[in-house]
């Protein structure tokens, strides 16, 4: 019987208990990993420093790598944290840019694909790309 003393338990750090699954579906994750050869160091880190929809994507920032057609293939950082053994850092990626710079680079692509009016460019692009993986 314990009287007057506290039982001390080890503290275990758990990563983002709110997110238990990836935002992207399996086909998209496979496509992204194929494009970057499974190496996030060859991706570009996009910082969402002025997010207009905080909390919408389970955490800011995303990785992108151009696909074989030059279109941006994205992976939310929340997914990258779950998939890779090390958390991708902006300084360890091929480059790091802001969301505004990303939108400036791919503005015509977003307009062509009718993604300009969506609240979160990363998630709009992710859902658009996921839909393209399925040819029902």
Using brief descriptors, characterize the structure shown.
globular, alpha+beta
Description:
The chain is α+β, with helices and mostly antiparallel strands and 136 residues long. The chain has one domain (26-132). 31% of the residues lie in helices and 13% in strands. The chain contains five helices and four strands. It has helices spanning 26-35, 77-83, 99-105, 107-112, 121-132, and strands at 44-47, 62-66, 72-76, 95-98. It has a four-stranded mixed sheet with strand order 3-2-1-4. The chain starts with 25 loop residues before the first helix and ends with a helix. The relative contact order is 0.19. Mean pLDDT is 82; it is low at 8-17.
Q: Structural class of the secondary elements?
A: alpha+beta
Give the beta-strand count.
4
Which H/E pattern describes the elements? HEEEHEHHH
Low-confidence stretches: 8-17
Name the shape in a single word: globular
- The portion of residues forming beta strands comes to 5-15%
Give the N-terminus to C-terminus distance in angstroms. Answer: 65 Å
Number of domains: 1
Mean pLDDT over the full residue set: 82
The order of strands across the largest sheet is 3-2-1-4
Task: Please outline the major beta sheet.
Answer: 4 strands, mixed
Oligomer: single chain
Helix content: 25-40%
Cα radius of gyration in angstroms:
18 Å
Number of helices: 5
């Amino acid at each position: 019987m314990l009287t007057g003393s506290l039982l001390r338990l080890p503290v275990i750090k758990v990563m983002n208990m709110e997110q238990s699954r990836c935002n992207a579906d399996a086909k998209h994750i496979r496509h992204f990993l194929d494009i970057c050869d499974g190496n996030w160091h060859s991706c570009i880190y996009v910082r969402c420093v002025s997010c207009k929809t905080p909390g919408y994507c389970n955490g800011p920032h995303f990785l992108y790598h151009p696909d074989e057609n030059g279109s941006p293939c994205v992976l939310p950082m929340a997914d990258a944290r779950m998939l890779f053994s090390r958390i991708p850092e902006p300084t360890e990626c091929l480059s790091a840019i802001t969301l505004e710079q990303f939108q400036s680079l791919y503005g015509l692509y977003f307009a062509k694909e009718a993604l300009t009016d969506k609240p979160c460019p990363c998630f709009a692009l992710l859902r658009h790309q996921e839909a393209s993986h399925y040819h029902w």
